[in-house]
Amino acid sequence: MNTPRATRRALLVGSLLLLAGAAQAETSTQDAIAEYREMFGDDNPAELWQSRGEALWHTARGPKQANLTACDLGLGPGVIEGAYAQLPRWFDDTQQVQDLETRLVSCVTTLQGIPREEFLKVKFGDGEKKSELESLTAYVVAASRGKPIALPMQHPAEQAAYALGKAVFSYRAGPHDFACATCHGDAGKRIRLQELPQLTTAAGAREAYTHWPAYRISQGELRTMEWRLQDCFRQQRLPQLKFGSEVAIGLTMFLAKNAEGGTLAAPGIKR
Fold first, then answer.
1. What is the pTM of this model?
2. Residues that are catalytic
């Protein structure tokens, strides 16, 4: 029969073995992703989405048979270089604070005459069903690579969006009483052996935000920031986040503002 000391020793050894196994699994996962990136070198599968987005940007389509070269993303009609680095922001024509995705939808519906519902039927790609929105997003985002994040934040609505995003980030709800801050409010946390950035700090927010949108290795798809937020809501077991909602825009504003000064490296590559 085991003595209490022997039992404690066995439990300790078992715990150490579990920790060692977890560390080994984490190293294996990180090594696999590093090997994947090394295999591609300077290339990124997201470039396929960028190419499709560039073609969509310059192709006359829709009832109005127009392209998107007159789309104003905040820096003037047709200017895409550096535009993503200054979004979300207020737009006078829509009387809204918009992120890149909702602004692109406005341009498509207004300039090309394509109904919003039709354009958003496939807003997130799935295998053979490629999303035009994701492709356009990749094209515009790539034009801001190397630019520092610098949001205007002068309009009261922009400040209100940030305040809403900050509040939602810490709001606990759902069957597990989770908030965004549950996973991303403190340092040193991880999930499924993956380190979680502390998004309330500049360093953590820059580490995360500057690489989104990103190509997801596990899904073989490029994913946008709104998809990322929607998936976080899903993992928290919250009601589905409505595309382009005030909550979605607010959270994006909160993260972008926290990451201000960081250099954009998107589209990135994620697990």
1. 0.83
2. 232
